[in-house]
């Protein structure tokens, strides 16, 4: 059974990997679905986001949903535009490159860049008190152990330059990678993001079902002014 909407009237459900749903009284958002169980509501406006074409962030299965839910719109990174399984000639598809803005229904959507592929999303929603959600996609400080020093320095430079572009934005809730494949650098990007942007809540993602790594990150960030959601299983819900 899903948790009830509470406090700000926002419910976040972890689907899998970097996939989440965000639900308000009128809106239902799906971010970076690639597998797992999603319960779509028939009575709300549904907006589906895919940050880039990598198969752990984009699954053409999302287009099957519109058969039963006609009140659906897709906000897709422009690198998905040439995908062979993309349905042709649909008016409910919007493709965005980095640093663009679009207004759909009650949402204001701005895109930022990535340090890998596609875009990251900043979404403003809510009827009364506007909330600002940021989904990073594959934007992260990709510090891979064993890479040449020049590549490591370049990755740091590109990441910090992208975060600097977000400095003037208000971000209430951020979905951000904490990737255990980076080993001791797994939370480097998330910690820097918190330091520079100071979201109220950070939701870890892109952790490849390694829930232990998320528990360690939550424990490490106990003193942080930003609350960290401690994800422990798929389809876990959080009332915000």
UniProtKB/TrEMBL annotation:
Signal peptide: none annotated. InterPro entries: RibonucZ/Hydroxyglut_hydro. This is L-ascorbate metabolism protein UlaG, beta-lactamase superfamily.
């Amino acid at each position: 059974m899903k948790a009830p909407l509470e406090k700000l009237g926002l419910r976040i459900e972890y689907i899998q990997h970097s996939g989440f749903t965000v639900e308000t009284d009128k809106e239902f958002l799906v971010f970076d679905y690639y597998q797992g169980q999603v319960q779509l509501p028939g009575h709300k406006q549904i907006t589906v986001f895919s940050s880039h074409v990598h198969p752990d962030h984009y699954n053409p299965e999302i287009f099957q949903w519109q058969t039963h839910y006609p009140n659906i719109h897709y906000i897709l990174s422009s690198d998905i535009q040439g995908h062979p399984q993309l349905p042709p000639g649909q008016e409910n598809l919007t493709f965005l490159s980095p640093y663009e803005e679009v207004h759909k229904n009650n949402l204001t959507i701005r895109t930022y860049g990535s340090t890998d592929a596609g875009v990251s999303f900043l979404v403003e929603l809510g009827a009364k008190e506007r909330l600002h959600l940021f989904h990073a996609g594959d934007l992260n400080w990709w510090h891979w152990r064993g890479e040449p020093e020049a590549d490591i320095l370049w990755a740091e430079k590109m990441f910090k330059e992208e975060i600097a572009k977000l400095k003037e934005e208000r971000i209430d809730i951020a979905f951000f990678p904490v990737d255990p494949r980076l080993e001791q650098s797994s939370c480097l990007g998330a910690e820097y993001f918190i330091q520079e942007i100071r979201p109220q809540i950070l939701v870890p993602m892109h952790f490849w079902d390694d829930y232990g790594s998320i528990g360690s990150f939550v424990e490490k960030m106990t003193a942080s002014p930003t609350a960290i959601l401690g994800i422990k299983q798929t389809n876990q819900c959080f009332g915000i």
